[in-house]
Design goal:
One of its GO terms (molecular function) is zinc ion binding. InterPro entries: Znf_SWIM. It comes from Sphaerobolus stellatus (strain SS14). The protein has about 170 residues and is an alpha+beta fold. It has a domain of about 60 residues. The protein has four helices and four strands; from the N terminus they run E-E-E-E-H-H-H-H. A four-stranded antiparallel beta sheet has the order 1-2-3-4. The protein is elongated.
Length: about 170
């Protein structure tokens, strides 16, 4: 049965090699877009494009449902190569435009996401009783020895009396 979405109608189509008694037949998903775009998950369509037998069967199936009274919007598929190229140009230009809009948002989008996550983590911490600390105002103490520590160690070693000298006789 076709499933009608706002932008397309989608059907599952069994492989032509599938038998009625087969437990796990190969099923392809076919989508007919109301903008003229169509896709199929079969290898023929994925590798070569164009209209595969699953798309043809789906068009016939949807047409039969429409004639039986189903309310499915028309799916105007390109008939010629020229129409297909025009449709491809429209779709790719829309995708490029969407990509450019997304990239133009750039850092502001990232900063909004970071702010949202920080707020969410703060709310979660507060709900379990963990106090939020202001990490920007607190500077972390350096770990490991500092230069002053190393100088102190050197002076301790050189100023020590000879009572702890080791003598190794070979």
């Amino acid at each position: 049965m076709p499933v009608v979405y706002p932008e397309s109608v989608v059907l599952n189509c069994y492989s032509s090699m599938a038998m009625t008694l087969e437990n796990n037949p190969t099923i392809y998903q076919v989508s007919l877009g109301f903008n003229g775009m169509a896709t199929c998950t079969c290898q023929d369509f994925q590798n070569h494009g164009g209209e595969c037998k699953h798309l043809r069967a789906t068009v016939l199936h949807v047409d039969a449902h429409c004639q039986a009274g189903w309310s499915i919007p028309p799916t105007p598929l390109p008939v010629t190569e020229g129409e297909a190229r025009i449709l491809y140009g429209k779709v790719t230009s829309t995708q490029v435009h969407s990509t450019l809009e997304f990239e133009s948002q750039g850092e502001s989008l990232i900063m909004n996401v970071v702010s949202f996550v920080n707020d969410l983590l703060g709310d979660t911490a507060a709900s379990v009783g963990i106090e939020e600390t202001d990490s920007e105002s607190e500077e972390e103490e350096p770990t490991g020895p500092t230069e002053d520590d190393l100088e102190d160690l050197e002076s301790v070693a050189t100023n020590a009396d000879d009572s702890l000298d080791f003598v190794c006789s070979i």
